[in-house]
Hints:
Shape: globular
Helix content: over 70%
Radius of gyration: 23 Å
Amino acid sequence: xxxxxxxxxxxxxxxxxxxxxxxxxxxxxxxxxxxxxxxxxxxxxxxxxxxxxxxxxxxxxxxxxxxxxxxxxxxxxxxxxxxxxxxxxxxxxxxxxxxxxxxxxxxxxxxxxxxxxxxxxxxxxxxxxxxxxxxxxxxxxxxxxxxxxxxxxxxxxxxxxxxxxxxxxxxxxxxxxxxxxxxxxxxxxxxxxxxxxxxxxxxxxxxxxxxxxxxxxxxxxxxxxxxxxxxxxxxxxxxxxxxxxxxxxxxxxxxxxxxxxxxxxxxxxxxxxxxxxxxxxxxxxxxxxxxxxxxxxxxxxxxxxxxxxxxxxxxxxxxxxxxxxxxxxxxxxxxxxxxxxxxxxxxxxxxxxxxxxxxxxxxxxxxxxxxxxxxxxxxxxxxxxxxxxxxxxxxxxxxxxxxxxxxxxxxxxxxxxxxxxxxxxxxxxxxxxxxxxxxxxxxxxxxxxxxxxxxxxxxxxxxxxxxxxxxxxxxxxxxxxxxxxxxxxxxxxxxxxxxxxxxxxxxxxxxxxxxxxxxxxxxx
Length: 524
């Protein structure tokens, strides 16, 4: 299907999906409406008629499912792995052990944050692993599922975008022009300390973990509801799925450790590290197929779980495969939402050229040089939020801004690159149609739209502080990158701390305390 240029109309589909999601709290309905509104616009512009509306939707959805089949396989296999670990008693045993070691909610939250920062290779893997490992612990300490989803989401993409060895770093480097005056790796490394949104998001995560009354807005209300519950958070299993009483901590640790090890090895394998061409570790990570590697790793980890559980009679042969089926079933809603999110992203990028329209508007605006960083931060945030993808935003804006800065402001090249990376992560972080946001809510067992609504004020707080920081960076660029970096990071950090001290006092979220949640706490 050939893309068409429809101007301002190209931003309508993501707006429809986002607004409806926030109003109706029905994500699938909202995404479907956004997709069909884009298909109608495309069919009218391309003169395809009524049939063209449905054919374009079905063709695009099939293409997106095919192109992302490995990720869907990873999702369902990981669901199966989580289910059999839970059924074998590994999660319950780990929860009991960790509850003894982590004796407070603060400790449980800090452990979640540290684990999220430790798994920096891929954000998908981060979301599910951290959720699986930490959910029993945070439930015992009455940490809301919304807070857990935020801790997962705020350490997934932000840590990946500042880790030189990650699927995200490889994506950024692949989009950096070869004639940009430096290599993509050099540009990425220099951009790390100026990536304000990622750095400040991680700072805020640990701040919110240690501050006992630091939550504000809808998250504060969610935390109060969690603390006021007489019983622990609802469990994902049914009454007849009582886990084995013989499970041990290692029954969770060994399969998860196998998943981590085999994920790294699989990424290196599919990246050609052992093909005899002498590729470095980073080159192999950059060339890998992350989805396929994660799918293979999850399959091997499931085999490890089988060999660990069945011979020891923690689970019978039939119970193990019943667990696989039930685990796959729990992931069906996430797979549906992911497919629709990929489809609406395709509508924006492949059919209506939303990114090209936004990028062209930026290029024609003749912005003042010192405002380039903050404007690129805002534009990349809006584009990523509307399309639900960071990587697509990288591909659109990075080549453009490198070319612009080479001519207009060479001293701002790295700062502008950092602003694009930061803005893209922000938009992806809080967009209800982002796959990372969906996976974070799924990993935490939280209703997706509840995760979006409670996380949004936190993400906006960091984003507004980052925008001020990029204003400082733009005006101080002529002092040299080192001085500009020092001023920017110092001002941003001080401002964030000041805001986080004030907001819990003025925005307590008490208006929601007397409202019964419309949906259950657990998604699965």
